Amino acid sequence: MNSTNTLRDLVTIVHEGGHAVQSILDKPLELVDFKNIPSEVAELASMSMELISMEHWHHF
Length: 60
Ligand SMILES: [Zn+2]
Description:
Blueprint: H1 7-26, H2 39-53
Helix pairs in contact: 1-2
The chain binds zinc ion (ZN).
Zinc ion (ZN) is lined by residues 15, 19, 43, 46.
């Protein structure tokens, strides 16, 4: 991540954290095809993290 000392830094780290959670939850799946998810599914977790945290962004 490139830090620019803006709100975008926070949004990016929250977004990428969503991808990390998705990856951790995918790991125990036995079928490899279930781990190769399309981008619209991959972005669901990360953008949901943005949505969930959005009400706290004003602290930044
Ligand atoms: Zn993403």
